[in-house]
Amino acid sequence: MSSSRCYLDYNATTPLSDAARNALVDALDVYGNPSSVHQEGRAAKALLEKARRQVAKRLHTEADHVVFTSGATEAAMTLLTPHYKMGRSDVSFSKVYIGATEHPCIGKGGRFDKDRQDHIGVDENGIINIEELEQKLARHDKSQGLPMVAIQAANGETGVIQPIGKIADVVKQSGGVLIVDIVQYIGKLPVNIESFGGDFFIVAAHKIGGPKGVGAFVATGSALMPEAMILGGGQEKGFRSGTESIPLIASFGAAMEQKPTTQDLDHSKALQMRLENGLHQLSNKLVIYGEHAPRLPNTTYFAIEGLKAETVQIGLDLAGFAVSAGSACSSGKVKQSGVLEAMGYHVPDGAIRVSTGTRTSLKNIDDFLAAFQKIIQNSKI
């Protein structure tokens, strides 16, 4: 990355950390198939199981509860199925209840038919309506199958953090299963899934300094497991067939060992405070979405009435700053964010997301504010 550029899009993906890069390069020389019994295969298997232990240790669970996938989307598709097994017994889920602001990999309902999906609303701050969830779960007809609930720990656009502990209690009382997307949460705040609540968790390497193309789903136990989506040679104990990508998985494991420190958290909070105080000083028409809710310390999602996010994004890119502009469709044009719609906002011009990381400095924030001020002045709104 050029020194003249300032990357402020860590929620989209993160730069590869030195530890992850070294593990990736080293593992390229371990060419054996981890399912083979010879020495080369055993060497690959050793790297695979080391990474599994690294993931488990970071999340405070057992290594045999970790199933590697190609990323969070595949993990979600595997978990979001009506068909599970508990030992040799079939366990059926008749409906999945999904938060209204979920990432599309959860929001589209996985392998559940549309008529077996139900969405739970959020308030103006993006927080799940727990009372609505309680009511819907209370009305759930268990004779047709158990309820499944899928909720993100933190939203990738707004950074809003959900009360997962409370949600987990509600789901447990209903006799259901809770799937928690911790993709955005894990790189910014400490996670202990034993105390967090939930039955299954979804993670992706490239959000925490690891490579793209690898992720995992992690269970809190080994009894209840989903029906496999990818069938074949039975790798990953039959839950995800296909020869494991040892270099990517080894790199993922190395990235998982680098959890955020107290200093990292304090730094993120200082950056966010500097940014948001500065933004409010630039315009009294500026809105920061989710500002009054618990949020990730690295995320700020904002808009100014009458200022097109696409224009801002292009102007910032030309000035050397990489940010996200709302939710982009396939043509690359900015459209209304589904997350903001669910929160009750009408933002046709889109919004800008700034997401910082370990390489972001206070000077980067000051330079960003200066560049953004020029864009506002030139727009004459």
TrEMBL record:
Keywords associated with the record: Iron, Iron-sulfur, Metal-binding, Pyridoxal phosphate, Transferase
Family: Belongs to the class-V pyridoxal-phosphate-dependent aminotransferase family. NifS/IscS subfamily.
Molecular-function annotations in GO: cysteine desulfurase activity; iron-sulfur cluster binding; metal ion binding
Organismal lineage: Bacteria, Pseudomonadati, Pseudomonadota, Alphaproteobacteria, Hyphomicrobiales
Record-linked SUPFAM superfamilies: PLP-dependent transferases
The keyword DNA damage belongs to this UniProt entry's keyword annotation: no
Listed Gene3D superfamilies: 1.10.260.50, Aspartate Aminotransferase, domain 1, Type I PLP-dependent aspartate aminotransferase-like (Major domain)
Catalytic activity: (sulfur carrier)-H + L-cysteine = (sulfur carrier)-SH + L-alanine
InterPro entries documented for this protein: Aminotrans_V_dom, Cysteine_dSase, PyrdxlP-dep_Trfase, PyrdxlP-dep_Trfase_major, PyrdxlP-dep_Trfase_small
Identification of the protein by name: Cysteine desulfurase
Pfam families from the UniProt entry: Aminotran_5
Domain annotation Aminotransferase class V: ranges: 7-368
Cofactors required: pyridoxal 5'-phosphate
Function per UniProt: Catalyzes the removal of elemental sulfur atoms from cysteine to produce alanine. Seems to participate in the biosynthesis of the nitrogenase metalloclusters by providing the inorganic sulfur required for the Fe-S core formation.
